Amino acid sequence: MIFPQKDQSKKSESFISNxxxxxxxxxxxxDTLSIDEQLRxxxxxxxxxxxxxxxxxxxxEQQIRLGFCTSYHGIERKGNHYICNxxxxxxxxxxxxxxxxxxxxxxxxxxxxxxxxxVSECTPLVTWSGLEISFSYPNSLHWKGGLSPSQKxxxxxxxxxxxNGGDLLLWAVCGAGKTEMLFxxxxxxxxxxxxxxxxxxxxxxxLELTPRIKQAFPDVPVISLYGGSEDRHRFAPLVITTTHxxxxxxxxxxxxxxxxxxxxxxxxxxxxxxxAEKAKKKDGSLIFLTATPEEKWQRECISGKRNxxxxxxxxxxxxxxxPKFHWxxxxxxxxxxxxxxxxxxxxxxxxxxxxxQAFIFFPxxxxxxxxxxxxxxxxxxxxxxxxxxPQRKEKxxxxxxxxxxxxxxxxxxxxxxxxxxxxxxxxxxxxxxxTESALxxxxxxxxxxxxxxxxxxxxxxxxxxxxxxxxxNQLLRMNREARRKGLIDD
Amino acid sequence: MDxxxxxxxxLCQGNIKREISWVGFFLNQGEFYLCEKCEKKLxxxxxxxxxxxxRPMEKLPAKFKKEAICYDCYLWEKEEKxxxxxxxxxxxxxxxxxxxxxxxxxKYRGDYVLAKIFAADIKGxxxxxEFDLIVPIPLSNERLFERGFNQAEALAREAGMHPVSIxxxxxxxxxxxxxxxxxxxxxxxxxxxxPIQVKEKTVLLIDDIYTTGSTLRHAAYVLxxxxxxxxxxLTIARG
Lengths: 490, 239
Ligand SMILES: [Zn+2]
Ligand SMILES: [Zn+2]
Ligand SMILES: [Zn+2]
Ligand SMILES: [Zn+2]
Description:
The structure holds two protein chains of two kinds. Chain A is α/β, with parallel strands linked by helices.
């Protein structure tokens, strides 16, 4: 029997033998599992709507009566305030009443998490309250690479937090090898039966990360969750997910790793921060990874208020290229008149002549598209890409293969995309969209591979901004720190 | 002097900063639910349109027109059973990509408040025309439970109307997938629950989209049969 007796202590031995357990976890949702086992797979650590559970309502209600599941009100009223129990929204402007056909009353629903299925006052949210699935995966790490001494140091700190709880900020420059530093900590947690989530704001990062994690932990069930993912009903000790999908979890993870904390929309969206908090177990560990923490966090790190480990150097032991500032005048005016500002033109034609590939960032699609023909005049193979471009993937692939000499882009290529030997320019670096963190990320595209560790990064601007200066200072400080610690050779 | 209203856009959550003229202010038209950027993506039906179903006809090739009406309407009107059943359909907006998304969010995701976006437009139509009864196209009970509200009824209510539910569904909503021939010759989809209420009345049917016109015509047919004097319809989008 899969459900424990009510009086059974939570500390008791796993009720599935070790061998059986591996099978259950590995198989996921299938017909060979009993309905009880299926429900447990669906619901462990999750908080779902009845509509999200493909079981007869009577069956779930029975399980609630028996105490294996618990149901909560979707929305609770507290005086004049409301709280959504799924997304923890309390902003009154994001609640609204409607005449509800289900409860036949004026029923308040949450607009904040609407896209995941409407939660209203009469919507029950169901969680699992039976015995948890327990597991242990000793020696799960099959990664054969090695860590540099500074990576090793960070890795030790991660292990420590995973062991003892608490939080840690891993502030590592682009190209420091963040993912590899997590491996030992993850292996450590899996051996001790800790459930681990790696959450990131972007679905493409989930897709990119999943095969790398699966390769490092080939015997551990890994699921990846994003809108439309097929893994959503499965239980796995290791979950790679968008921050959005964390809304469907509650007190699920012993270890919550949040990658790219600075990236949109996590830093912008309070809801997702609350979701991450909710998905983590109370005494769990919280690890943030970032190349560019927000200002407040930077100060806390430097003053020692925040548990933090800084990796100022890339794994290839070369310094990070420092952005040059270049005034380019009223570039919008120039483009409007059908010409590329002189300084940008010189930079760009030099890259064409050398045959060196480059990204040129623009603050807005509209200006990028106006500029495109002006650039194509010099080389028709030049392309432009933005977030709503259906050919986005194909174009990046073509660029990778060397078939596009220069790629104009909006901030969508600011992170994630790593190309061995490129130069980078930012046009209109004064724009608000180029925050300190965006500029650090953009600069981080240059000099990534050990074969080509240098490159040019130029910010063309119509007036320097604080963000530009802070970004440059941040990178200068990292290089200084790296030199002091003997982490770079040049 | 300008008065600015600061609200969040229903769709993009951006701030709404719009100038409200004094005239608008006193007429109480000061409520905006969309930011300017989102509102611009709504495309009002303007210019030449089918006098029967509101289908925009400017870009329509000549073979799809029959004088003042579109070819679809011509085919409906050709059949005796359907002739004059639906006197006229008024649609407000073009069913473009943005509208498709908006309607999907409204009725499938169940974002009830979005009905407010159209309240002023719907009120406008009612100021120009008079009807005895406002009747939303009903959902089956199963659908209604699933969605939690009837989108047609929501549109009417939020516009300050008092819709009456005198239609009920005999068949489920699945007919949308059938071919035109099948749809036309389908046995009745709706029935009138209280025929006395309909006698000699002018009726305005409300729905979210006019796509083939089949749903509205089936509803109009049973209303006429029950004794309604005239039946027109109002939809926010013309598919
Ligand atoms: Zn919510
Ligand atoms: Zn309700
Ligand atoms: Zn908007
Ligand atoms: Zn027509």
